[in-house]
Write a structure and sequence with these properties.
Structural class: mainly alpha
Number of domains: 1
Order of helices and strands: HHH
Shape: elongated
Strand content: under 5%
Distance between the termini: 12 Å
Number of helices: 3
Radius of gyration: 12 Å
């Protein structure tokens, strides 16, 4: 479950930077693209949202399985 939380943390850092009008850290952007290579061509804000949604769905499925 930690991987999903880590992915959400990176995505939220990128979204926070973008909403503040700052450039996200390049290492964070590369991490997002590594986490979701099939989605890497999307606009960055959409990529962040998709990664967060996937992490939440995974977390929900794990909770239901327990």
């Amino acid at each position: 479950m930690q991987q999903g939380i880590d992915a959400m943390t990176v995505a939220l850092r990128v979204l926070t930077a973008m909403t503040k009008g700052k450039t996200p850290e390049p290492t964070d952007v590369e991490e997002l693209k590594r986490l979701a290579p099939l989605l890497a061509d999307q606009p960055l804000d959409e990529l962040c949202c998709d990664i967060i949604q996937q992490a939440v769905k995974r977390r929900d499925l794990l909770r239901k399985a327990l």
